[in-house]
Amino acid sequence: MTAPGFTGAGIDRADQLRLDETALRVLAQHEGARLLRLAELDPVLDEEGRLLWSPLGEEAADLIFLGMDGDAPLFAPLVAVEAFGQRAWSVFRLLALMAPRDAAIWGAARSLNEWHNRHRYCGICGAPNGPFRAGWGRRCTGCGAEHFPRVDPVVIMLAEHEGRVLVARQPQYPQGRYSALAGFVEPGESIEEAVARELIEEAGTAVDNVRYVASQPWPFPGSLMIACLADARSDALVLDRNELEDAMWVDRAGVTAALAGDPDAPFLAPPPFAIANTLLRRWIEEEEGE
User: Fold this and answer.
1) How many Å apart are CA 52 and CA 97, to the nearest integer?
2) Which residues contact 204 (CB under 8 A, 6 or more apart)?
3) 104, 141, 210, 223: most buried, per Cβ within 10 A?
């Protein structure tokens, strides 16, 4: 079964050590301690497409303790950046080269760095705050409030009708690319309700029988993608042109061709590290298992 991208890091996050300053100092001095190399927030890869790590040495900057890889403590730098939201597309080329485990480790470091940079000031009193808890929190210098990384839930779904699934494209997608529909879960809303609402809002498609398939951390900047399937009541479409450029129903043969990279496929599939790709593959596997 296809595993979603950005999962499978396989490290011990060692939460119990994050407030233990003595233990963290010992870990930082461990001969096997490694520091993740970053170019701002992007990964730095070697010639084989693997993450580059450096000995921790006398690193004095703020660090994020990622966890333990066996006996080796892993750290990432806490990087100050000024611009947000423009770097995701540029890194996709690198992600295509990366092993899933490396992508998962880097993704956690990227999400945490994005969160730190977006929360430099206290949301309660407005005073500056600084990192604590080994990089997994920030504490206000004014009121003392503690803030912790947040994950934004996003539903991503395929509506199915009579052996076909609904895929759509946004204007910023590469030419020919179609993907599953997606949207943020709103306050006071369940996953099932969010799936149904987004499909009605964006495609005019009413659905029933919403079912969970898989989830994926998405580090652009810090979402949890919740993949679902749903049964559409009809194949009629009314697109929200502010959200979607086009949408279409595709049968199993068309999806299989797209996932195989067939130049004659009806659409260009989302990249393997995106959970939309996993969702399409799971739909095919579900059909084959019937």
Assistant:
1) 13
2) 236, 237, 238, 239
3) 104
Token pair of 223, please?
């979402």
Domain residue spans of the chain? 15-118, 119-149, 152-289
Is the sign of the CA dihedral 211, 216, 219, 222 positive or negative? positive
Upper half-sphere CA count for residue 101 (Cβ side, 13 Å): 5
Q: Which fold has domain 152-289?
A: Nucleoside Triphosphate Pyrophosphohydrolase (3.90.79)
**Within 85-179, where are the H helices?**
88-95, 100-118
Per-residue pLDDT in tens (0 to 9) along the chain, 290 residues: 778 999 999 999 999 999 999 999 999 999 999 999 999 899 999 999 999 999 987 665 789 999 999 999 999 999 998 766 555 667 888 998 899 999 999 999 999 999 999 999 999 999 999 999 999 999 999 999 999 999 999 999 999 999 999 999 999 999 999 999 999 999 999 999 999 999 999 999 999 999 999 999 999 999 999 999 999 999 999 999 999 999 999 999 999 999 999 999 999 999 999 999 999 999 999 866 55
Secondary element (H or E) of residue 279:
helix 275-289
Helix (H, G, I), strand (E, B) or coil at 241: coil
Half-sphere exposure of 56 (CA within 13 A, CB side): 23
- In 3D, which of 14, 12, 30, 38 has the Cα closest to residue 117? 38
Question: What does the alpha-carbon distance between residue 195 and residue 74 come to, in Å, rounded to a whole number?
Answer: 37
Q: What is the DSSP letter of 16?
A: G
Instruction: Please state at what angle helix 275-289 crosses helix 252-259, rounded to 10 degrees.
Output: 130
Contact 104, 7 (CB under 8 A): yes
